[in-house]
Amino acid sequence: MAIEDIQVSSQSRRSIYTVWLRFAAFISVLAGTIILVSPSFLFSYSDPDLPWNEQFRILPSGRTPTCEPSPDQPKIIHALHYKTHALQDDSTRGTLNFIISPEGVVKGIWNGEYDEEDGSHCILVAASFIGNIDPTKPCIKENIHDASKLYFISSGSFYLLKTAVSSGHNRGINGFIYVRGWLDLNYGATGELFITENKKTFDAFSWSAEPTD
Q1: Tally of CB atoms within 10 A around 21
Q2: What confidence tier does 61 reach under pLDDT thresholds 50, 70, 90?
Q3: CA-CA distance, 191 to 180, in Å (whole number)?
Q4: 111 - beta bridge partners?
Q5: Region 137-159: what's the mean pLDDT?
Q6: What are phi and psi of 176, to 5 degrees?
Q7: Is residue 45 predicted with pLDDT exceeding 60?
Q8: Does the pTM exceed 0.85?
């Protein structure tokens, strides 16, 4: 092999190595930007506890749970009705109404209007969800297993109208809604409400309620 060929081959290898280094640096910068701008983008895939990663627990419409609550969990003898406020940073974000039937089916709506911290006014035009209880999911908090809690999860769709009060500009937002929670032995319920346009970024709300009758 000629000396010139060896030199060309060496230069080619250095050129390829430089390209790969630049590509790796680009990927690192891109990943860092995603984490800083929207960390929930990564969590939407990595966190199995996000509700859309529990979609397998929600039965197809028309089906009822076949797994009965354990002896330690609350038994749903008659329909349970709940009405409460969704909260975000201790501020009210609409009203949550839902029912849990003796068959274990969950149905409800989220409605109302509220103001956000940035001065926007939100009107919940439509938001409904349906799901079911799932006695198989254990309630584990701070490494303590509470066998008395009964899990339920539901999903649906939402549409809200967001108005920037300062400019009067309206923007329609639609996507997925998830409502989930735990029933205790006295039929008190606590849980969360999530809305997401893309299952990557999301808003989360908390709620707690007692049966209305």
Answers
A1: 10
A2: confident
A3: 6
A4: 95
A5: 96
A6: -105, 145
A7: no
A8: no
Q: Which fold has domain 59-209?
A: Porin (2.40.160)
Residues 85-90: contacts with CB within 8 Å, 24+ apart?
Answer: 85/207, 86/110, 86/193, 86/205, 86/206, 86/207, 87/205, 87/206, 87/207, 88/203, 88/204, 88/205, 88/206, 89/117
Task: Work out the pLDDT band at 62, boundaries 50, 70, 90.
Answer: confident
